[in-house]
Design brief:
The chain has 16 helices and two strands. The N terminus is likely disordered. 71% of the residues lie in helices and 1% in strands. It has a single domain, classed as Orthogonal Bundle (Farnesyl Diphosphate Synthase), CATH 1.10.600.10. The chain has a two-stranded antiparallel sheet with strand order 1-2. It comes from Dermacoccus abyssi. Its cofactor is Mg(2+). This is Polyprenyl synthetase family protein.
Length: 332
Amino acid sequence: MTSPAAAVVPEASDELTQRLADGLVRVNDRLDEVVDHDSPLVKEACHHLVDAGGKRFRPLLTLLTAELGTGASNEVVDAAAAVELTHLASLYHDDVMDESDLRRGVPSANSVYGNSTAILVGDLLFGKASELVAHLGSEAVLLQARTFVRLCAGQIEDERQAPDGEDPMAYYLRVLADKTGVLIAAAAQYGAMFSGCDARVIDLLGRYGELVGLVFQLSDDIIDITSDAETLGKMPGTDLREGVATLPTFYVNASNDPADERLKELLARPLVDDAEHAEALELLRRHPAIDKAREHTASLAREAAALIDELGEGDAQTALKALPMSVASRSA
């Protein structure tokens, strides 16, 4: 397995950073153990994205919220690994749905093994995550099940337009809360749940995590427009190519400036033509909608940070307050 992602949490003390780094090593070791398989092909396909690394943001959040209690027990590590496996499983499915060729700078699993195998590997990893959670008790199983249902529902609704009578931007944000926010909420809750925190703290961290998840996805959607392929690890403008509306495009469509008519025309359809796709990217990158989307994202980050005020003071609280804005302002 590759080295774990660095435990970079803004405003964390050196001691906290080291504990988080040590925890991530344990999580990565657990992932390596759990995805092992007797079949060389199955093992290789399961390791495809696990070994590609990634930010390990969700398990890192589980380890961080555990600092509000007794710290990274074996149960916390297993919960963190289960959350990451659930996330990785969803990526195998996402790449099939998006027909992606790259993921994290390497060929996507569907491009290497084919769509059917990629889907089945995703299913297998969901099963492995459930197996881990099953050892953590009925409360953890219920949280995993509810999270999985919302995640799938969000992904289904993401493929469709807002129903008649529902505000499109509100629909979009609700879908993001389901398909991304709910798993990050579960990551935050698991850390508190298995470190001895009370129900009030667990509930608060669920709300915090869902907001952080929204910030994470909104930031991703902005990065998909503003970054290049080398930084992104895949081709930029995936949402534009598929005709998927995101926060910047909502702001463009709300504009009354006649100069935006060409961009609106492009955004009204999937941009499968390379020249039109490049034109839309160029116009959108210099449009004020990007700054508006960034401010909207930052406002949600501030809302998440404000929740932590209810938890008093401490090293973990300081890091949890700083984390949302760090997510909002990232460039990759």
